[in-house]
Each structure stands twice: as structure tokens, then as C-alpha cells.
Amino acid sequence: MHPGCSKIRCRFRFAGLLAALALASLTRAADAPLPDIRALMREVEAHQEQLEKVRENYTYNSIQTIQDVDSSGQVKKTQSEEYDDFFVNGHIIEREVKKDGQPLTGRDEEKETERITKLVEKAQKVPPGEPLEGPAITISRLLEIMDVRNPRRVDYRGRPTIVFDFVGRKDAKTHGVVEDASKKLKGTVWIDEADRQVAHVEVSFDDNFRLVGGLFASIQKGSSFRFDQAPVDNGLWLPTGGEADMQARILLLKSLRQHVTERDYGFKQFRVETEESKQATAVPARP
Fold first, then answer.
1. Residue 129, by phi and psi: left (phi above 0), alpha (psi -120 to 50) or beta?
2. Hey, which bits of the chain come out as E strands?
3. What are the φ/ψ torsions at residue 182 (nearest 5 degrees)?
4. For position 213, what pLDDT does the model report?
5. How many domains does the chain have?
6. Residue 177, SS3?
7. Is the dihedral of CA 116, 121, 122, 128 positive or negative?
8. Cα dihedral 132/137/140/145 (nearest 10)
């Protein structure tokens, strides 16, 4: 997700004037009143919906690295999975192409092709905004479960950004596993002020969360997640990576600790009417 600032080339004699104008602009932005956070997040959601058709002209690659760690933090096992990511009817589709650095072959490749074919067919029928796989929650509903705190304006990666903290309301009435889990969360969100896009999210569980009544698994307090997006091209933002530290207990006996990282790269814009593709990279932070 990534719109960049315009490139300005000018003579040296105008440098002082431009610097003064930029400083005045930044001062006005810093002094401007903060928007209502709930209204802001609804703008973010609406803006994302407007860009769904644009996203379908893009593909990118992602690599996920999963490390099993012991109680002292030592890595016991590492595995990786690589994907080709694309969008269908507003839904993201991830096709696995490599496992532990080796391309899928034989029956594994056939099974993945069958899975993706079925998923694409399903995505074409499921309206944008509705979950394609598993339960989901809308921003509007999430905000009903959360208390929003400490809104402020900061400079994040060279761009004016509105930041706020949130914490799940323990007394909120919820339905379903995702809403129930939301009550156990706390975190911080960074919203790009110009583009109304989520630039960064940090979330953690501030209490244990039991799945299926806690008989089969529970997510432990302290498990955390981070997610990043950046402007790619023409006002479009796409994921650039994420990280998670997960602690869980399975069948009340086995403890699972994993550190997961994801890196998204190789953004490409394509057009159906041409055979050429356009490389797109995450726009760097403003100097």
C-alpha cells in the first residue's frame, strides 16, 4: 500500500522559499485538531473498499518463516513457505510455490493447484468484505468492542500519521471466536493521515484466550503480532511484512512456542490487455 510524494526539482535560489513553505505546512498539520478516531477508521475501511478493483491489477510474493522455540527462546526447528499472492473479487489468494526453499512438485503441486482453483471459484461468488476462509470481523464491529485511547499525531517513516491505542472491553457482548478473542487484545494502530491507510499495527493478548472451551488449545497471555503496509503505486497500499510471537497450550499438556515472520516483496502491476508487466516497489520514506 503506497503512494509517494511528488519529486520536486528546482533551482537553488528557490530552496529557501520551499523549505519555509514546507515548515509552515508541517506546523499547520501538527496544530490541526485530531479527527474522531471511530470516524477515521470508517474512512479507512471505505477507502480500502474503493481500492479493491485497483488491487486486482497487482501481484506480489511473500515468504513466511516459522521457528519453533523452547522455553528459553532457543530455536529448535525452522521451516519456510513461499507464496504468490493475488486478489480475486476483493479477496486475497495465496498460492504456495515453495516449501523450505524447494519448489512444490508432483502430487504436492497438483493438490495446491486444486486448492487454488476451488478458492478462486469461491472468491468470485463471495461478496467483497465477507470472509473467504474462516471467521472475520469488520472494523466497525471491532470498534464497538474496543476502547480507544491516547490519540496523537506523529511522524512515521517520513509521513504524518495518526496513532491511537486500543484495549478490548471485558464487558462487551460478543458472538463467535473472533469477537471473543478481540476482548483479550490491546495494541496500537498507525494511520497514514494523507492516504487514510493502516501503516502499522501492534497487537498483543493481555490475557489467556481459550479455544473450543479450552479443552483443545489456548493462546497464552503475551502472544503478539505486528503488521506493516506501505504505498506501492498510484495511491495503493499493500502489505510489506509482519511478525508474530505465539505461545499456546494444546490438549492442556503440550506447549507450543513459535516465532513467525513474513516478508512481502516483488510487487507487480499487470494489465490484461498487454503482455508487459510493471514492477512496483514500496515507496521509501520521505527524506
1. left
2. 58-69, 75-88, 91-99, 102-103, 146-156, 159-168, 185-192, 197-205, 209-211, 217-219, 224-233, 236-250, 254-270, 277-279
3. -60, -30
4. 54
5. 1
6. helix
7. positive
8. 180
228/263 Cα distance (integer angstroms): 10
For residues 20-30, average pLDDT: 39
pLDDT tens digits for range 122-156: 999 998 878 888 777 777 677 788 899 999 999 99
State how beta strands 146-156 and 102-103 pair. unpaired
pLDDT tens digits for range 220-265: 899 999 999 999 877 789 999 999 999 988 776 678 899 999 999 9
DSSP 275: S
Instruction: Establish if 8 belongs to a structural domain.
Output: no
What does pTM read for this prediction? 0.79
Position 95 scores a pLDDT of 97
Residue 23 lies in a domain: no
Residues 270, 280: contact at Cβ < 8 Å?
no
Of 263 and 211, the structure prediction assigns the larger pLDDT to 263
- Rounded CA-CA distance 211/24 in Å is 52
Contact 3, 284 (CB under 8 A): no
For residue 162, what pLDDT is reported?
Answer: 96
Q: Quote the domain boundaries for residue 269.
A: 36-279
Question: Has residue 42 been placed in a domain?
Answer: yes
Q: Say how many Å lie between the first and final Cα of the chain, rounded.
A: 19
Is residue 286 included in any domain, yes or no?
A: no
